[in-house]
Specification:
By secondary structure, the protein is mainly alpha-helical. The chain is built from 14 helices and no strands. The N and C termini lie close together (5 Å).
Length: 361
């Protein structure tokens, strides 16, 4: 990170603010809100295994990161507007913007579950819905009408499933807010949650078909296996969580109660699909870093690998609660600890990277 040096010939020259705040603000990854997603869901995973102080500590970190990233994003829009909007319609970088939606929803869920703060939870719900509407119809419209498009193997990755995660995150937060408000708005929010849950599932089927086709019929190098491919599992885990919360809420919404068998079937379907991905992703990771010796170094995209682990822990816990699957109790505890370790390693790597950049100033 370079700061413009003071020179006697330029006594009034000040450091470039972009370089002071971020080593490359112009190229700031839109997926960096994945850090908030990962920290927030690991916080909730820690809470469910009784680590309350850890949960609150991670909550504070997630909140600070959310505020800082919004500050950097606003600064980037003001100073590099063309680059910002070019990223939004880029096939590889554009889906990363959906981390803004999911980060807002997960932070709102933390305010409801940990702080019991409905005002902040509802405010973040509004932000998430507005972002989802704006980003969904901007990004996918642009992808449809733009003239220059990359071939499938160069234009799609696991990051596209962040659109599914964003959609399901609104379903989750809507279900949590619905519990704390009175009728008739409780029915409205539960219906919105159900609609988003169903749409997110359909979106996963569309996108996963393309991703799996890219997996199996195109050349696959270690560099292609970026960390967001863990979203293959994370998208199913958050779909499981949304379905579980809808089942729990069914007593307060007659239209949900009438379709409980349907919701249970699809929730197990989502969970089973996400579970299938875990060994596959581990094997591919070993192939990438051990067999192919691809270097393992910090990348903001690794937050996209931490998030699915925490989400799997939380979603399995809620599914077991909603359906009385006590025999699954060992999984939420095990994956909560795995997610905590993964978050700690990634955060330490982040700090090392930051300190190294400071030394290079």
């Amino acid at each position: 990170m370079n700061i413009v040096p003071f020179s006697p010939d330029q006594p009034h020259r000040t450091p470039n603010l972009d370089r002071v705040l971020h080593p490359d603000l112009k190229m700031l990854s839109p997926a960096y809100f994945g850090m908030v997603m990962a920290t927030g869901i690991v916080s909730l995973a820690a809470n469910q295994i009784g680590l309350l102080s850890v949960a609150w500590g991670l909550f504070v970190i997630a909140l600070i990161a959310y505020i800082v990233l919004w500050g950097l994003t606003i600064l980037r829009i003001s100073r590099h507007r063309n680059r910002f909007f070019a990223d939004m319609i880029d096939h590889l970088r554009g889906p990363g913007f959906f981390t803004m939606v999911a980060a807002s929803s997960i932070l709102g869920s933390e305010f409801l579950i940990l702080a019991n703060n409905l005002v902040m939870g509802f405010a973040l719900w509004i932000i998430a819905v507005i972002l989802w509407l704006g980003l969904t119809y901007t990004i996918f419209t642009a992808f449809t009408i733009k003239e220059d498009k990359p071939p499938l193997d160069q234009g799609i990755s696991g990051a596209w499933l962040l659109a599914v995660v964003a959609t399901q995150s609104i379903a989750v937060l809507s279900s949590l807010v619905a519990v704390q408000i009175e009728q008739p708005y409780r029915l409205d929010l539960n219906f919105l949650a159900l609609s988003m849950w169903l749409w997110g599932g359909m979106l996963y089927i569309w996108m996963m078909s393309l991703i799996f086709y890219r997996y199996t019929f195109f050349r696959f190098s270690p560099g292609d296996l970026s960390p967001p491919y863990w979203i293959n599992m994370g998208a199913m885990a958050i779909s499981t969580l949304a379905g579980s919360l809808l089942i729990i809420n069914s007593e307060d919404a007659p239209f949900l109660h009438s379709i409980v068998p349907f919701m249970k079937g699809f929730t197990i379907f989502y969970w089973a699909t996400g579970t299938w991905w875990i060994p596959m992703l581990v094997i591919l990771g070993i192939w990438r870093h051990v067999y192919k010796r691809f270097p393992l170094r910090y990348d903001p995209l690794y937050w996209g690998a931490v998030f699915p682990l925490g989400m799997y822990a939380v979603s399995t816990f809620q599914m077991a609660k909603a359906m009385g699957f006590g025999f699954l109790d060992v999984l939420p505890t095990t994956f909560s600890w795995i997610a905590l370790m993964a978050w700690t390693l990634t955060f330490c790597a982040y700090l090392v990277t930051v300190f190294r950049l400071k030394k290079e100033q």
